[in-house]
Design a protein that fits this description.
Shape: globular
Helix content: 25-40%
Strand order of the largest sheet: 1-2
Number of strands: 2
Distance between the termini: 65 Å
Protein name: Bacterioferritin-associated ferredoxin
Pfam families: Fer2_BFD
Strand content: 5-15%
Mean pLDDT: 85
Largest sheet: 2 strands, antiparallel
Radius of gyration: 19 Å
Low-confidence stretches: none
CATH topology: Arc Repressor Mutant, subunit A
Structural class: mainly alpha
Order of helices and strands: EEHHH
CATH architecture: Orthogonal Bundle
Number of domains: 1
Number of helices: 3
């Protein structure tokens, strides 16, 4: 099935790119931009993005690597502008 008419990308192209990226780097975080780059293409109008994303989500190799799960920004002990020097 054609997913992106502007760049002529099929669901098979997306699956192949995701499978290739996961095989080459098991800890990679796979994004739509990386899939486009792996295919040697770039997003054009963006009209395909909902279908592009749903196609990506159906691929079993899209799963987030275990070491990247549950990461959250840690709260800092500093005040928001504690490092900024006050000018007098």
């Amino acid at each position: 099935m054609i997913v992106c008419h502007c760049q002529h990308i099929t669901d098979r192209d997306i699956d192949a790119a995701i499978d290739w990226m996961r095989a080459s780097d098991p800890s990679a975080l796979i994004t739509p931009g990386k899939v486009y780059r792996a295919l040697g293409k770039s997003a054009d109008c963006g009209g395909c993005m909902p279908l592009f994303l749903s196609t990506m989500r159906r691929n079993d190799n899209l799963e987030i690597p275990m070491q990247l799960r549950n990461l959250r920004a840690l709260p800092t002990q500093e005040r928001p502008h504690a490092r900024r020097q006050e000018s007098h």
